[in-house]
Amino acid sequence: MKNIWKLSDYLFFWYWKKWEKYIWIASLILAAITLFYVGMIHVDANVSEYEYFPKCFQTYDMVVDYSFLPIIFILGLLLIFATLFLQIKGFFNHGKGAYTLFTLPMKRKEVYYAFALCSIAAIVIYYILWLVLLVLAYFPITMVYEHQAAKEIFYLSEGHTLTNMDTHLYNGLFLAFRRSWFLSTFFPSSLWHVPAFVAGLLLLWTAILFGAFYTKSTAACIVVSILSIAGGVYLILSACIHRYISSSNGLFLGKNIVISVVAAFMMLLIQSCVLRTLEEQVEGSEG
């Protein structure tokens, strides 16, 4: 176990120096600029149609959804997955890396576990950094909107207006994660959607490992990887699908839980298939 941690630590820092630090820095800087630009400057054109609507006010979920934040996040996540795949394939395609790894005093499945831990760490840290950015950005953006909304004059009836209204938001951050299609899809706060989201992310992660490690059959590798990616994307987007398509909450959520369990089982099956293939390669090389 100690060797697995050491190797995964080396692989992670190698990946950090070559790929991930650039993806993290670029995506977070672009996200911060976009978020504050939309939050502080952008005014929705439809708002001007309402004469007495506070024209400076948008809730945080509106700011997030009206910005390019979802595109930046998804592109960054796709780059994380793609570069993890390239990292693993690179060690196999370049002789030095492959021979270095497989001549270590470790079993091949332990090398596999090290790559798996490295990739999980990269994905989890990417999510944590984005979550920290989204939470921290809420407070200054909301504060500006509360201040601007307090200046508005609200028309009640002929000759009656309302000023100095209390515009403080309560539970605004929680409601933003519930209302925003982006936040509720990629950062689910509902316990009903968390299993599907986690299963989908694990399926995508499994597709990377299977596509990189499984060399027994190219056709099987491509088919299983595509099916895993398709299933992972569906499960991750299930919260968005549920919001805009489904009319039966209980039926959809129940079906989603069942699909998540099946996906978890399929993930374990695919992982065990890769491990079995690696062990067969060792036995073949020894024979």
Description:
With 287 residues, this protein is mainly α. Helices cover 77% and strands 2% of the residues. The protein is built from eleven helices and two strands. β1 and β2 form a beta hairpin. α3 packs across α4. The chain is elongated, with a radius of gyration of 24 Å.
Task: Provide a short characterization of the protein structure.
The protein has 287 residues and is an all-alpha fold. Helix 1 packs parallel to helix 5, helix 3 runs antiparallel to helix 5 and helix 9 packs antiparallel against helix 11. The chain is elongated, with a radius of gyration of 24 Å.
Draw up the topology in text.
Elements: H1 2-40, H2 60-66, H3 69-93, H4 95-102, H5 108-150, E1 154-157, E2 160-162, H6 172-179, H7 181-186, H8 194-213, H9 218-236, H10 238-244, H11 249-286
